[in-house]
Amino acid sequence: xxxxxxxxxxxxxxxxxxxxxxxxxxxIEQLPVWWSEAIxxxxxxxxxxxxxxxxxxxxxxxxxxxxxxxxxDAEIRFMGVGVEYRDSWGVYIDDEQIFTVDRERxxxxxxxxxxxxxxxxxxxxxxxxxxxxxxx
Length: 136
Hints:
By secondary structure, this protein is of the alpha+beta class. The protein has five helices and six strands.
C-alpha cells in the first residue's frame, strides 16, 4: 500500500497503520508528513507512541482540520485555556473561540474529540458563513 506524502487518504493511512509494525522506519516514511513528524517528535522526547487524535466517528482529526484550513486560509486549533482534567477544549479559528468540544484520552493513547467529523466541519463552515468569509 503506497501513500504519498502530498496526498492523504485517511482510509489508506489507517489500514497501513493497522497492518505495519509501528516502529518500522519504512512504515513511518509511508505516512503523511504531519503524522511522521509527530512520531519522530514523540520519539525524540521519549514519549509514548504517537497516535493521532480522532473525532467521535473515528475519523482522524488532522486531515479534516488541514482541509478546512486550506479551504478558508485560516488557522484552526483545538486548545484548552485554563482547563482542568476532563474540561472541554475550545475550537479556535484565527485565535477566536467558535465552539467547544468535550474530549477524552483513550486507553490506546490518543485523544477522542466528542464531536463527529461532519458536525465539526459544519460548525467551522457555519462560522465562515456567519462572518461572510469566502473560501480561497
